[in-house]
Amino acid sequence: MEDCTFVVGQEFPDVKAFRNAIKEAAIAQHFELRIIKSDLIRYFAKCATEGCPWRIRAVKLPNSPAFTIRSLEGIHTCGKNAQNGHHQASVDWIVNFIEERLRDDINYKPKDILHDIHKQYGITIPYKQAWRAKERGLAAIYGSSEEGYCLLPSYCDQIKKTNPGSIAELFTTGSDNRFQRLFVSFYACTYGFLNGCLPIVSLGGIQLKNKYLGTLLSATSFDADGGLFPLAFGVVDEENDESWMWFLSELHKALEMNAESMPKLTFLFDGKKGIVDAVRRKFSNSSQAFCMRHLSESIGKEFRNSRLMHLLWKAAYATSTISFKEIMAEIEDVSSEAAKWLQQFPPSRWALVHFEGIRYGHLSSNIEDFNRWILEFRELPILQVIEQIHNKLMIEFGARRIKSNSCFSVLAPCAEKQMIEAINQASTYQVLRSDEVEFEVLSAERSEIVNIGNRCCSCRDWQFYGIPCSHAVAALISCRKDVHAFTEKCFTVASYRETYCVEIHPIPGRIKWRKISEGADDETQVVRPPKSRRPPGRPEKKRICVEDLNREKHVVHCSRCNQTGHYKTTCKADSMNSIEQF
Predict the structure, then answer these.
(1) Average model confidence (pLDDT) for the chain?
(2) Which residue intervals define the domain SWIM-type in the entry (predicted)?
(3) Fewest CB atoms less than 10 Å from the CB: which of 45, 277, 392, 453?
(4) Cα separation of 461 and 467, whole Å?
């Protein structure tokens, strides 16, 4: 643009095109414009710098929308010093500049906008102006937040029409129909979970960052290959005990509608009391477990000691009560305060050896994986968040359907790999048979007792993971049994294929069903946004340095009484002595 020049007689398609061209030239060539006259038939402007002779005049051609330059006078003598900001670099101009990039990258940050404009045009604009341009650009591309709430009822209807058996329920509050909650579970997800996934459900939530905030609650599981499997999700105006009770009630209904009997499930979550109470009440026959990732991060933040985190994971994976007690004693030696802090979390909720349910080796939930799916979308209006999740589900289900159909082994890829390793290791063992089902398996280090009738081994790996361990494999091979037949059904390729056999169908374009919402006569059908809004300013971010986790927690020391926990200035020793003397 720095080399662009205007000539007399040059034509433009219309007045808008001419205005954009002159604005681009002014910004690129670093001079300010002073517009004398601008309407639909004429345009007259000059350089805003006093004494600069540059002038331009353009008019509309007769019987045509085209604009042409009639006169162009003088050359710039102003030095073109408009670099620290530019009056023509309006929010609308910035929106035009970033629109294509914003379509490709929703997380195009204001600071990146500033950098790109400065790089291309050499001018500096305020951060706030770039932020406003991004907000306006997102609204232009994806629609406003208010419009998203209005279209939610129609979108829920489209989900149920295009994907029969799916659940999309919208709940409002108050006489003015303010949004309160939304629950969505596609039939393909419910069917895949009940017929192919591991009976494990992870629960969690993530804050939305759009104009009206809210929280996205989600329930996920694991497929036969250990992959993330979204089961259901919902949006609530506020995350609290009541909203979790509602979400798990809707989840129970969705599963109950598609299952002859409710399977015994294991729930993984971060230990929030609201989730614990809701799971206990709505899924009374289920097992509950704390997410080990969350628990280890919590102890790391609390005590800033990476060794404690390592020992906690070691204790969680312990396969005997003796080794568990030994590791817990190590934690006590490292930090008695940490051991006391850990007492608030019963081992039956996080340690494999004490857990009463079945986790198939999954100590951590995969909610964080699902949250990463939508991390880049959470600044969008609520309707676009749901659309993006739907699109992501369609893509993932299609890709995994192809992957599962291309598997020709008995077990899913990860389970098959584990089985091959067990078979290779079993070849080094000696097997002694006791009866039809019981064996003693000898290795160089120790011996293990295997019972193929009860599907258990004294090393406990078979019971914990659902796949025969190397000792069990050695026993099964010695009596010519099929090792794959003794693996849990949820790890088979047949289950893997069944998980993704039902398709998630696309939803028609918004233009086709928008008219239904706009033409609704019933005022109660209009859903309004919740009253809570995003506060002004940039939200605070708590950053934790990974290196700090390796540092011991600082303990203050008093130089007056030689005690810890306070400084000399706050020491109460003098005051206590004075009282005693008195």
Answers:
(1) 85
(2) 439-480
(3) 453
(4) 8
Residue indicated by tokens 């919402």: 517
- Which residues fall within 8 angstroms of residue 208, CB to CB, at 6 or more apart? 214, 215, 216, 235, 378, 382, 385
Tell me the whole-structure pTM to 2 decimals. Answer: 0.77
Residues 6+ apart with CB under 8 A from 580: none
Burial (Cβ within 10 Å: 0-12, 13-18, ≥19) of residue 13: exposed
Token readout for 179 is 């949004």
In a 3-state reduction of DSSP, which class is residue 128? Answer: helix
Nearest to 272 by CA among 294, 254, 257, 246: 294
Q: Which of 118, 113, 152 is nearest to 135 (CA)?
A: 113
- Is the model more confident about 467 or about 581? 467
- Closest to 552 measured CA to CA, from 358, 303, 250: 303
Phi-psi region of 346 (alpha: psi -120 to 50; beta: other; left: phi over 0): beta
At position 450, the amino acid (one-letter code) is V
pLDDT of residue 123: 81
Burial of 63 (0-12, 13-18, 19+ CB in 10 A): exposed
In tens, the pLDDT along 508-523 reads: 877 666 555 555 444 4
Q: Angle at Cα 360 formed by Cα 353 and Cα 202, nearest 5°? A: 105
